[in-house]
Amino acid sequence: MTKVTTAQLQQFDRAHHLHPFTDFKQYQKQGGRIVSRAEHIYIYDHDGQQILDGMSGLWCCNLGYSQQRIVEAVNSQLQQLPYYNNFFNCSNQPAAEMAKALVDISPDGFNHVFFTNSGSEANDTNIRLVHRYYDLLEQPQKKLIISRHNGYHGSTIAAASLGGMSFMHEQFRGIDYVHHIDQPHWYAEGGDSDRNEFGLQVARQLEKKIDELGEENVAAFIAEPIQGAGGVIVPPETYWPEIQRICDERDILLISDEVICGFGRTGAWFGCETFNFKPDLITFAKAVTNGYQPLGGVMVGDKVASVLLGGDGEFGHGLTYSGHPASCAAGIATLAIMKEQRIIERTASDIAPYLQQQLRQFEDHPCVGEVRGSGMVAALELVGDKHSRAKIADNSAAATFCRDQAIANGLMVRAVGDAMVTAPPMVCDRGEIDLLVDRLGRALDATAKEFAVK
Ligand code: PMP
């Protein structure tokens, strides 16, 4: 690579690169951090600053950045067969093997997969699959999808319509057959109610919404086991069993969007296993390749698959890179590492409980109203007053400040609303969790001082 200075790169970037989820106007002025390399759980910027990556990239590099086996798998696949499509009755070895590998680690009753490149496309695919399913069952009017406010399902028009981020909805016109119910966010929306009672109440909104829309018109309910981008919202214990009861009693499909929760994040292969519910379809992406190659898809449960497989005619949906050989090669290597090194078992029995326990010490911090999390994902809700749950400052200014302090202290975390979010790689050891917690603590202290929270 030619030698370029950080300032030059920032200049090219500011002048020509439109970034995702970024304030374009502001970015032109301030520019950004150029990340140049990474090792184990650390990223390094172009000036050499080392930052512990408490976000696993964008919730995807669950095994960190030094997995040579994935690099070699991709490299050798690119030499053998860099590309061929999976249309017109063709397949390739990595796609076929990856399909089998995914079935092997999926819950019972999941024996088929449709590949995409991303989580957004996988959720678009979900809509196509459930519409096709009910068409084949001769119930073509069943087209409506129910999802949740403050859920995140991606950025294509359909996936963003499924999502419930109000600031996104303000910027585009969503598809008209998606209907939202409330999220199970007890701390923000539960008021004085009992946590478990609140969980039941918000779950029962699904039942009400089905009745309101007419069960004969509703095709599916989609939700993340834990809302990730919405701020790591861990539902009350009563929530998922009640959702399961409703979905069992009603003729609608349940889609678990596991783009963040999948592949060990919650301490099991999938979040639906941690929360003990049985979806009909599972969306996956991100950590399936440890973030090394774009790959996503839908695991299709037997109930849906049996109808799809019995239908006459072609399913009119697919992507040029569905089942891309290099992406599937990365996925095969990723799953093999996870299995052979017993990553999930170690996460569940040691490193995740340790992370959660260490973070709980911040419950006593003056700035922190709630510490929530499960497995290797957690959030600290910042408040100015623990009793009233009042915010420290408007416009999430305290969380933004806290995040910037963390980065300055060598820790990458994310600010979501007023919450500080972390989802570190599962290959951390206890010492590295201690380092993360120490740096986060410094950022919290600085925030308390800056905003005079006592
Ligand atoms: N679903 C969930 C739950 C996600 O968190 C994301 C991405 N953060 C997506 C879907 C979209 O995935 P992608 O960005 O790969 O399109």
UniProtKB/TrEMBL annotation:
Keyword Transferase: yes
GO molecular function: pyridoxal phosphate binding; transaminase activity
Superkingdom of the source species: Bacteria
Keyword set includes Transport: no
Cofactor: pyridoxal 5'-phosphate
GO CC aspect terms: cytosol
Keyword tags: Aminotransferase, Pyridoxal phosphate, Transferase
Pfam families assigned to the protein according to its UniProt record, in alphabetical order: Aminotran_3 (PF00202)
Sequence similarity: Belongs to the class-III pyridoxal-phosphate-dependent aminotransferase family.
Protein's recorded name: Putrescine aminotransferase
Biological classification of the source: Bacteria, Pseudomonadati, Pseudomonadota, Gammaproteobacteria, Cellvibrionales
